[in-house]
Amino acid sequence: MWSSRSLPVVLMLAAVIAAVGLSACSGTAWCPIGARVPVLLLASLPVLFVGISAHGRIGWTLAAWGLVFLTQIAAMLATADGALAGDRERVAATVLADTGVDGKGGPHLYALAGPDGRRLDGTLRTEVPHRPGDRVEVLVDRSGWYHPTTPDAASEAVSVGVGAAPIGCAALALALVAVRPQRREGSARARWLGPPPTDAELARRLVVEFRRARPDAPGPQDPDEYLAALDPVADRDAFDALVAWIHTSGPVATGGWTEDRARLRAVTDGIPALFRWRAARF
Known about the structure:
This protein is an alpha+beta fold and 282 residues long. The chain has 3 domains: 100 residues; 68 residues; 93 residues, no CATH class. The protein has a 4-stranded antiparallel sheet, covered by helices on one side. Helix 1 runs antiparallel to helix 2 and helix 1 packs parallel to helix 3.
């Protein structure tokens, strides 16, 4: 079973793989050419949803989504045109008609006929303008899985697919960073600084600063003995002297910023700890 901390990572891996895989499938003939961009957008939405809902890291998620979308485009192009590269059947096709434009101002779409005069499966997508009756050399897939394409487009698609590999790796890395488990609060402190001090330790530090500032105050000089004497019934004067110093003074300044800050921290942390310690003891 996946733990709640690792579940976002698993979901993000699945979202990225599904987005790229579905985009690659959209390059085949089963997906209409005009529907490829909407398919890519819909396939990328789970990446945004998982990234933002996991820990709310919007910046990392948007950066990962952008790279994932670029990888999707490359996967779609590599499948649409690059899959026909190599030892595929080349035919001298005839342009039958201009069937439209792929997007606003995009490449034209052409219906083709083979050398035998029968219409070829799929549609040629190219930026080179043609007229009905023009001859064009294309790569075809007789199984009908891919649209026909030109040899130049197939070579370019292979280069795009190879060049997109580093982008895909970066997209996956950013996506995993966006959903990485959050550190447990206090784990770093426990690892490097040890467990937090107890109330008794904090109270002792407070007494050390008090004795440094008021060596002539009533009560024992040793901090441990002074703490033991803070029972109001046993030594009221010692307790009153400490409380008066807390209200009217503070630690002795040394001139060093780091040490002065540490002494002030000992006082501010020690005051509530002292009263908690006394309440638990007396």
